Amino acid sequence: MIDVTDLEFKGSGKPLNGELKMPGDKSISHRAVIFGAIAHGVTTVEGFLRGNDCISTLQCMRALGVQIDESGDHLTINGQGFDGLSEPNRVLDVGNSGTTIRLLSGLLSALPFYSVLAGDVSIHRRPMGRVIRPLMEMGADLWGRSGDSYAPISIKGRKLHPIDYHLPVASAQVKSALILAGLQTEGKTTLTEPGASRDHTERMLRAFGGTIRTEGLVHELVGPQYLTGTDIRVPGDFSSAAFFIAAALLTPDSHLVLRSVGMNPTRTGMIVVLEKMGAKVSLVNKKEWNGEPVCDIVIDHAQLRAAEIGGALIPQLIDEIPILALIATEAEGTTVIRDASELKVKETNRIRTTVDELKRIGADIEETEDGMIIHGHPGRRFSGGPADSSGDHRIGMMLAVASQKSDAPVVVRQAEAIAVSFPTFRDQLAQIQR
Ligand code: S3P
């Protein structure tokens, strides 16, 4: 049982200045542990995100018999291939993590033992049919609540057959689950996405010596594949950096440098939007770690204008929409976000929680069927006061950053949720406010 914590966030009233190292990328950290476990030989991971979501994946892999040594954000994984995984003697607890439950559903469907995946209240409300159905098409024996739609998910693993599947939603979690099943299945698995979702699984698979062919929105892999352990360096999480980018954009005269942030183009749609809005963002010191682009982000405060956000860009900034909504309150004009219905099935209904909580502290914002409309008033401050993360880490951090333009402190209820992806958030915000 996690204690419910109210945390008070107070804008310093001063420009934000300094250099920060962002915590490891959440998506890449999950995948590093999973691939390290299914590869043969030793994998080391440097910069692993010690957030609750990734720790859930780590504990699940241990419960499946994988030996993982930890020393701070450094992991050593003793992979013994798919065959090295063994039946867990308890329910696998995924906590709040959609990535853990969906990716492991795919992995476990092809392994010859019984397993059950369950998590917290929020995870049991999120749609699992999107991963259960295509796995059933591959011949998997797995079940979920309410007609195979929700967790807990129970799985009796068995030999699968390949499919040619068109994903109904652009979801990296579903795509990755099917890749993890396809890697263990004899023959060619073909996956076609309706839009490009993040491609960390494909990049990581190649880093471990595996093969997947991608042409446009079509992915093809031939199984079974033999993967070899490697050394993974996890870049900083762009989605975490987004909160500091926003803090600088809301605070006149700010100048921040964010070091070694992952810049995978399937994740950085927010930069495209910010450039349209007139933000000053420079990407410097570019490099590549395990096939993932990385750079430092330099951000200066600038006057912004409103933008229209929708279409194919949405999957590339889906996790940044709450913080983009906050940024838009400071832009001249009306910002419209559309085509973002997927937000309704995240950790919370993020259209609803973003609009309700921002309105409560003083923003001029409306909910729509598939997004929101934000009326920007540059320089106009929020009243601040109580607000609720609703147990959603990204809503909690967005509200904390909103304190930069609030008269009274913003008191975030259920602020403990922030540790899901960014345990050092509060300390690092305080560091640049000094
Ligand atoms: C993630 C994929 C995205 C994203 C989530 C992490 C991943 O979800 O919103 O925070 O690590 O694969 P979808 O699978 O719905 O795209």
TrEMBL record:
GO molecular function: 3-phosphoshikimate 1-carboxyvinyltransferase activity
Keyword Amino-acid biosynthesis carried by entry: yes
Active site, renumbered: D319 (proton acceptor)
Protein's cellular compartments: Cytoplasm
Residues the record lists as binding phosphoenolpyruvate: K26, G98, R126, Q173, R350, R394
Highest taxon, organism lineage: Bacteria
Major localisation: cytoplasm
CDD domains, per the entry: EPSP_synthase
InterPro entries: Enolpyruvate_Tfrase_dom, Enolpyruvate_Tfrase_sf, EPSP_synthase, EPSP_synthase_CS, RNA3'P_cycl/enolpyr_Trfase_a/b
Pfam family of the protein (one): EPSP_synthase
Gene Ontology cellular component annotations, sorted alphabetically: cytoplasm
Pathway it works in: Metabolic intermediate biosynthesis; chorismate biosynthesis; chorismate from D-erythrose 4-phosphate and phosphoenolpyruvate: step 6/7
Matching Gene3D superfamilies: Enolpyruvate transferase domain
Residue intervals passing through the bilayer: none
Entry keyword annotation includes Amino-acid biosynthesis: yes
PROSITE patterns registered for this protein in UniProt: EPSP_SYNTHASE_1 (PS00104), EPSP_SYNTHASE_2 (PS00885)
Domain Enolpyruvate transferase: 13-429
NCBIfam families referenced in this protein's UniProt entry, alphabetically: aroA
Family: Belongs to the EPSP synthase family.
Oligomer status and interactors: Monomer.
Role according to the record: Catalyzes the transfer of the enolpyruvyl moiety of phosphoenolpyruvate (PEP) to the 5-hydroxyl of shikimate-3-phosphate (S3P) to produce enolpyruvyl shikimate-3-phosphate and inorganic phosphate.
Protein name: 3-phosphoshikimate 1-carboxyvinyltransferase
Species per Swiss-Prot/TrEMBL record: Sporolactobacillus putidus
